[in-house]
Amino acid sequence: MRTSSGKPFLPAASDIVFQYIFSSARSEECLLHFINAVRMSAGRPLAQKVEIRNPFNLKDYESDKKTILDIKAADESGKTYDVEIQTANELAFPERMLYYWAQLYAGRLSSGEGYEQLRPVVSIVLTRFPLFS
User: If you write DSSP's letter for every residue of the chain in order, what string do you get?
Assistant: First the structure.
């Protein structure tokens, strides 16, 4: 994209800009403020610290689906956050977001661990279109 003056322009809603703002080196404080703004608006307790994690969910088996999240983070209480931005209204987008959430939730439990070890996974999804009617 270009501005009217011909200079290159990347909108903040583009994946690359969004990821740079919230998951590049030393951007934990910015991400923490964003997550806490969402948590505050939902009446949830605020996080004190977040750690940015590797957004790649690699395959364990050849037949598994590899996924790449926009932003993956965890807070001090063990909650995992998946922060996604989506500009195009794709047909299966809600199912994809549920799949990402389920992958993160199920992936937190290792063989032999009890289900009480599971910790919440929070998905924060920004869209440029109405997701629900």
Answer: -B-TTS-B---TTSHHHHHHHHHSTT-HHHHHHHHHHHHHHTTPPPPS-EEEE--EE--SSTTSPPEE-SEEEEETTS-EEEEEEE-S--TTHHHHHHHHHHHHHHTT--TT--GGG---EEEEEEESS-S--
In the block, tokens 């869209």 appear at 127
Beta-bridged to residue 68, according to DSSP, are: 56
Model pLDDT for residues 12-62, shown as the tens digit of each residue: 888 888 899 999 889 999 999 999 999 999 999 999 999 999 887 765 667
Triad 84, 54, 115: Cα angle to 5° = 85
List the domain boundaries for the chain: 15-108+118-127
Say if residues 82 and 124 touch (Cβ distance below 8 Å). Answer: yes
